[in-house]
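Board notes (copied after class):
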Amino acid sequence: MPDPQLVVGLGNPGPGYEPTRHNVGQAVVDRLARRLGGRLHALGPAWLAETAWAGHPVYLAKPTSFMNAVGADVAWLLRELALEPRALIIVYDDLDLPFGRVRIRHRGRHGGHRGVRSLLEALGTDAVRRVKVGIGRPATRGEIVEWVLTDFTTEERDALPEVLERAADAVLELAAHGQGGVSVL
């Protein structure tokens, strides 16, 4: 039987955060759950769906903790599902990519993303596969917190379904193949 995969969409809990740039990772997990026919149910500190893709069991998860403290929840999920960090794929927003750009990475540092930092510290490794979804950068550094916690513009919302589809495709590419390298979609 092929190795199971765990896909975690990073974001903040609650309906007030759902439409924000910071929650694009969870929006991708929602899209994957619909595409793969999975139903999210509560399991410990997350919402979890059990699905499959290309012969691989694929768990989809949305942690219920805030972004900056997500590491402990993801570590708990990995233990609960008896998975190693190499089975993990995280999906999250990236300020350093223009809006709509999707990038696959197989390892690396957190790049200033506090959720990713929390996760890498909790797991003790930077060898975590990731799908980064570009949200663009505000004009000044002082606007970053407000930027990630605000809704997308009208133009971005119009383009978002296609961006989420490409990000979901990237996750499924990793789940099916998990091969090295970096891709930009």
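Comment from the instructor: The chain has a mean pLDDT of 92. Strands lie at 5-9, 41-43, 46-53, 56-63, 88-94, 102-105, 129-134, 183-184.
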